[in-house]
Amino acid sequence: MFELKSHSYASKREHYEDLAQQARGLLAGERDLIANAANFSALIYHSLPEVNWAGFYLYDGSELVVGPFQGKPACIRIALGRGVCGTAAQNRETQLVRDVNAFDGHIACDAASQSEIVVPLVKADGSLLGVWDVDSPVINRFDEDDRVGMQALCAVFMEAVRG
Ligand code: SME
Q1: How far is the CA of 98 from the CAs of 33, 81, 114, in angstroms?
Q2: Which residues belong to any copy of the GAF domain (predicted)?
């Protein structure tokens, strides 16, 4: 059985380093994309404070389609270039949105979401797997430590699925 850790950390960085290690252990030995995406979402959603949605949008060759996630039911399809997720997918750059109300074109799946971070997931061959999206009900929830930490977690995920 996988035990979620619940002790406090000296810093966000330390927390993310520990989470990366937990993710490595959780995904080790399994290559199935959906299984690993589901467990990865559950690990992050239940480990990070002030988060109301954490999950994947997977690229189906033409648009993003919601994948495994934790949180309330979400928008199903997002076109490339639309919203925070579609922007991350098109630009292939992490989007750190401190206030979603100030992001032109933000797609509000859950009215509670106030800030958001989206990391593009690019395979070794350069093609797009999808994006990793985390929402918070708190404005300004995510900072540079979150950007670095989330990107490191996504690298662990991509390594596990050999994406
Ligand atoms: N807010 C996202 C849509 C996905 S939900 O937050 C789960 C966006 O603007 O792309």
Answers
A1: 30, 19, 8
A2: 56-155
**What phi and psi, each to the nearest 5 degrees, are found at residue 43?**
-60, -50
Residue 121 has phi, psi (to 5 degrees) of: -110, 105
80 lines ligand 1 (CB under 6 A): no
Locate the domains of the chain by residue range.
12-162
How much is the average pLDDT of 71-89? 97
64 Cβ inside 6 Å of ligand 1: no
- Residue 132 structure tokens: 């990793």
| 12-162 has CATH 3.30.450.40 classification | yes
The gap between the terminal CA atoms of the chain, to the nearest Å, is 26
Is the CB of 20 within 6 Å of ligand 1? Answer: no
pLDDT in tens, 49-67: 999 999 999 999 999 999 9
Mean pLDDT computed over every residue of the chain: 95
- Reduce the DSSP state of residue 44 to 3 states and report it: helix
Per-residue DSSP letter, 137: S
Q: How many whole angstroms from its chain centre is CA 27?
A: 15
